[in-house]
Amino acid sequence: MLPKPRPPICMLSEPASDAPAEKWAEYRLQVDEAKARGDLLILLVPMRPADSPRTEKGVTYCGTELDALLVKTSMLPSKLGNKSLLDDVMKNLAGNVIRPVANREAVEDDGQPGIGVAM
């Protein structure tokens, strides 16, 4: 049995509020066409910085391009057997934590010896 095909993802950016009517008409047409095709629709719209992406009636609204790309990546299939491509990325992140250490040779702004922090 073959896996159910995933619908395509369509990401669109809302025009500026003062954009000409033609730009708004083109944007609305693209949104309508994506909905008619059954695409997973991600819209980049003005939002308050504290607001998280939200999904209403099958459309995901994001306030930043980074949020939109993360949402899109979470909808793409995994290449490693995980839940999504975003899950692949998160599980393959590698990092080191480096503690600050005192630098006894540091000089304060006033020219006096002090204890600075070196990385």
Word description of this protein:
There is one protein chain. It contains 3 helices and 6 strands. It has helices at 21-37, 65-75, 85-91; strands at 9-13, 40-44, 54-56, 59-62, 101-103, 116-118. Strand 3 (54-56) and strand 4 (59-62) form a beta hairpin. The chain starts with 8 loop residues before the first strand and ends with a strand. The mean pLDDT is 85.
Mean residue pLDDT: 85
Radius of gyration: 23 Å
The total count of strands amounts to 6
Strand order of the largest sheet: 1-2-4-3
Number of helices, counting only DSSP H or I runs of 4 residues or more: 3
- Regions with little confidence, pLDDT below 50 for 5+ residues: none
Query: Helix proportion of residues, in percent?
Result: 25-40%
Query: Could you give the distance between the termini?
Result: 55 Å
By oligomeric state, this entry counts as: single chain
* Overall geometry: flat
Q: Quick one: biggest sheet?
A: 4 strands, mixed
Class from helix and strand fractions: alpha/beta
Beta-strand share of residues: 15-25%
Helix-strand pattern: EHEEEHHEE
Brief summary of the model shown:
The chain has 119 residues and is an alpha/beta fold.
Q: Which helices and strands, and how do they pair?
A:
Blueprint: E1 9-13, H1 21-37, E2 40-44, E3 54-56, E4 59-62, H2 65-75, H3 85-91, E5 101-103, E6 116-118
Parallel strand pairs: 1-2, 2-4
Antiparallel strand pairs: 3-4, 5-6
Distinctive features:
119 residues, alpha/beta, flat
